[in-house]
Amino acid sequence: MPRMVFDQVTKSFGGDPVIADFSAEIEDREFLVLLGPSGCGKSTMLRMIAGLADVTGGAISFDGEVVNDLEPKEREIAFVFQSYALYPHMTVAQNIAFPLLMNAFRPWYHLPVVSAVMKRAIARRPEVAERVAEVARTLELTDYLDRRPKSLSGGQRQRVALARSLVRDPSLYLLDEPLSNLDAKLRTQMRSEISGLHRRVRKSFVYVTHDQVEAMTMATRIIVLDAGRIQQIGTPEEIYGEPANTFVAKFIGSPGMNLIPATAADGRVTDARSGQVLDRGADLADGDYLFGIRPEAARLAADGEAGPAATVTTVEHLGGEVVAGCELGEPDAEAGLTVDLGGTVFIRTAPHPSLTGRGRVRLAFDRGAVRYFRADTGQRVPATRGTPQPQGSIR
Amino acid sequence: MSYRTVDGAPPGRASAPREAHRPARGRGTRSRRRAGRLLGYAFIAPAVLYLVVFLVVPLLQGIAMSFTDAKLINPTGGDPVGVDNYASTLTADRFWNSLLATVLYTTATVAGTVVLGTAAAVLVNRAFRGRALLRSLLAFPYAMPTVAVALVFAWMYNQSNGAFNRGLGILGIGETGWLTDPDWGMASVVAATVWKVFPFVMLVVLAALQSVSAELYEAARIDGADALNTFRSIVLPHLAPTLRIVALLMTIWSIRRFEIIFLLTGGGPVETTNTLVINVYRTAFSDQNLGVAATVGALGLVVSLAVTCVFLLVERRETKREEAL
Amino acid sequence: MRLRRVTARLLVSAALLAFALFAGFPVYWMVNTALTNDSELYRTGQDWWPHLERLPESPSTLADVPIGSWLLNSGFIAFGTTLLSLLMAVLGAYALSRYRFHGRGAAAFLLFATQMLPEALLVVPLFALFGALGLLNGLIGLVLANTAFAMPVALFIVKSAIDRIPYEIEESARVDGCPRYGQLTHIVLPLVAPSIAAAAVVTFFEGWNEFLFANTFLTDSEKWPASVGLATFVGQYTTPLSSVMAAAFLFSLPAIVFFVLMQRRIVSGLTAGAVKG
Predict the structure, then answer these.
(1) Between residues 129 and 188 of chain C, which touch chain A (CB distance below 8 Å)?
(2) Residue numbers in chain C where pLDDT is lower than 50
(3) What is the count of structural domains for chain C?
(4) CA neighbor of B162 nearest in space, from C45, A312, A289, A166
(5) Which of A74, A395, B252, C92 has the most CB atoms lying inside 10 A of its own CB?
């Protein structure tokens, strides 16, 4: 339901800005992921959307209405906490029913005996009981309704937290790193469950994570944050394929995009270290750049094919494919080989006999996948080979 | 994170949203924050006001009273006498004797309770059958009402029929007037106090011991440390902060302690156990001289504040030193 | 090696036994004395082993001591102290733990500092104050005086429990539509219920055991609590000692039982006040 607009939202604790100048427009029913390293302000942003943290400056509006000063409950939201924040003294059923109970609760029910009686009465109302049962069935919690959170496994607790947010049918779901406390296998499973939930309830989701895999697999739109500033807004494909700057290029992907310091002169791009030619005919003004290439867009050159020479420094076998780290140029083997991660170019390719330690290879790059970034600002140089500028990048 | 509140706002900082963004409904951030703060005041007010009325005001009145010659018959009608009370108190032996008694009593009980309590905790921390039962048994004395403790100790200390002298008689040792002999009065009172209070130290130290990770013990064992080494180089450093706090509590409580001394010896024999608090009480209600009692009380307060300050300073320095390591 | 381990174990066992005797003997002796009659005490000498066969007749020995009415008075003082203390302590603990307001640090310091004031120093001015208020010879006055000393302890016990509740749980309740005051009743109170029970035990027995104020303020022996009543027997051997000790045992029993049940929470709360005050 809500179309969210952020207009120059800022947040500071004391004098230190945590979020600066956050502006974005998010359509209804998006699955928005706020992605960034820890401490980038993404959780603070989510808490401001929820109304748990005050907005220092700017405005957040849902469907044109500014919600800055609304209480969380007035915003029709649900919030899934990283720690799940289940109520330890309540059973699963009571946890799920709590939002409905609060909805029906009147201040005078706080009177000692009335409280106990009314709580029971509200829980028994057909609309409450049936709703709880229905939500529990959806998330396969029916067998655990009388248990307390303490006796549940991590995945079950996660589902109770989801159920509690689902029960009220909110128009906006806010999730704060909900999968970070689960083991890897369960994480994959819950990822698809949450995606399925998004498709089923057809509501807006805002999901905070530092895990790019979660972001890439679940999001319909990603906002990459660093140090309280938006780095890029876009779909997962745009973020991956057309990173707006070197931060996004490095942060997304595992390993991230290779960024090779390079110099352009007359359309010829040469490696700044070894002086080898990386690209010809590039539509670039003369100057210093970073030559960006994804590991999977780099491969070993075929016999007779031209390409920069490199020395293999590390090899990591991933089963079907290999990630190899190479150093451009042919350093003197006698001088000793140091693994310098800064200068290492990673390629992801099929296993090949020459990919062994100190192997001499020639590399080839998929020219369509090459991206250039300005060496001084780190911003991407507008694409030259027919890829359109992504929508919704920084205004 | 550390400074987050329920509002999610840093403490004591108000931020006004820009006027242009005032919402159509809902109270403003600022008024909501103020309401939250008012609720905080409302919740803490009863406790604070209560203490002001029943402790702070009487304390100030007591200090004021120390400059008058108020008597028990007419507690509020004393005439101002300036610092006469202080002059006479500080020049009389009685005050200095009772200061000495306080220092003796405090050092002895603190040392006794901390040593016995720590020893008991270390022993009980080991796994053996009936541990829970023994732990509860060792906690009995702390739970027993002081009056009951005084009753049973007075009886055990009884010169001709008490358990102690009868027990010693079997060993061929003659009778001692535990509570009437000036050489033994203080020791007897200290013994009864240590008996009553050591379980508190034991329980606190036990809690601290249980937070030593088992891996640490195992690492020490692999490194070839024997039991005593382990205790000195692993357990004791871990316990140090706890022991300092416990020692502070024991000191404050020893300076404060009234009932068990009052009931067992009433300050005697020959004023050997006449600690400051006993002195105050006797001056007020036996000598009926409230002005002088208040003076001794005020001086006693200065002493206990000074001790507390020294402790807190040491505590701060030690904590800093430990953090620096 | 083996021999050393055996001797070590023997030494530890001996130390444990010594501690058990040390802690248990006075309690044992109280029971033993309660089952011995005066002629044995003063003439033939008290047996080291208790005459358990006299247990059925011991209720009748209590007749020499008006312990019943004393315990009622003690109960009234204790109950009043608990009620009044908890009311203020729970609200104050919640405010100190969850609200930020000016003077919060000062309030916490006041609460901590009052724990260091010797009661005996305040008994004189309180005597004057209560005299002026007409509260001297009554149980209400004792409830008021005891509460001033018991309430801060209870407050720190409850506060340290509230401090352990993660903020997320209350924030979650807020998102679920629970208003500010409701977070206390729906979330916080149920979660700290065990610690409130521990605080109740502490304040109850502070009132139950209290002697100084009762001994000073009460002139009417009808109103004596058990502590003051029993104190009159210390070192006095005119009343049969078996009755006195039986009464003292009756007076101690509830305190011991409740303390043993809740010792862990009580102790952690008592130190929490000192550490974090």
Answers:
(1) 166, 168-169, 171-178, 181-182, 185-187
(2) 274-277
(3) 2
(4) C45
(5) C92
Alpha carbon distances (Å) from C48 to A357, B141, B178: 86, 20, 20
Do C271 and B153 count as a contact with CB atoms less than 8 A apart? no
- pLDDT for the residue C268: 65
Q: Which CATH number goes with the domain that contains B300?
A: 1.10.3720.10
Residue C178: list chain A partners with CB under 8 A.
Answer: 73, 98, 102
Nearest residue of A to residue C180 by CA position?
A71
Domain of residue C28, residue span: 2-58
Instruction: Name the token pair of C156.
Output: 């720190």
Residue extents of the structural domains in chain A: 4-241, 256-374
DSSP A59-113: EEEETTEE-TT--GGGGTEEEE-TT----TTS-HHHHHHHHHHHHH--GGGGSHH
- Looking at domain A4-241, its CATH architecture is 3-Layer(aba) Sandwich (3.40)
At A236, is the pLDDT very low, low, confident or very high (cuts 50, 70, 90)?
Answer: very high
Chain B's closest residue to A57, CA to CA, is B17
If you average pLDDT over every residue of chain A, what do you get?
86
Q: How many angstroms away from the CA of C170 is the closest CA of chain A?
A: 8
Q: What's the one-letter identity of residue B163?
A: A
What does residue B282 show for φ and ψ, rounded to 5 degrees? -70, -40
Q: Which of B2, B3, B39, B44 best tests the C interface by mutation, with the highest count of C CBs <10 A?
A: B44
Q: Do C145 and C203 reside in the same domain of the chain?
A: yes
Number of neighbours of residue C88 by Cβ within 10 angstroms: 23
Interface test with B, best of C32, C37, C40, C121 (most B CBs within 10 A): C121
| CB contact at 8 A, C86 and C154 | yes
DSSP string, A139-189: TT-GGGTTS-GGGS-HHHHHHHHHHHHHTT--SEEEEESTTTTS-HHHHHH
As separate numbers, helices (DSSP H) first and strands (DSSP E) second, chain C gives: 13, 0
**Mean pLDDT across the stretch A280-302?**
88
pLDDT digits (tens, 9 = 90+) for B20-33: 333 334 445 556 66
Q: Using only the alpha carbons of chain C, give its radius of gyration.
A: 23
Measured between CA atoms, the residue of chain B closest to residue C246 is B148
Alpha helices, DSSP H, located in C136-186: 139-163, 167-175, 180-182
Asked if the structure places residue B239 within a domain, the reply is: yes
Q: Is the reported ipTM for this assembly greater than 0.95?
A: no
Domain boundary among C14, C40, C58: C58
* Structure tokens that stand for B228 in this block: 């005593």
Q: Tens digit of pLDDT for each residue in C263-273?
A: 777 766 666 55
Closest to B189 in 3D by CA, of B296, B116, B108: B108
Please report how many Cα atoms fall inside a 13 Å half-sphere around the Cα of residue A295, on the Cβ side.
Answer: 20
- The answer to whether the Cβ–Cβ distance between A89 and C177 falls below 8 Å is no
Lowest mean pLDDT, pick from A142-156, B52-66, C60-74:
C60-74
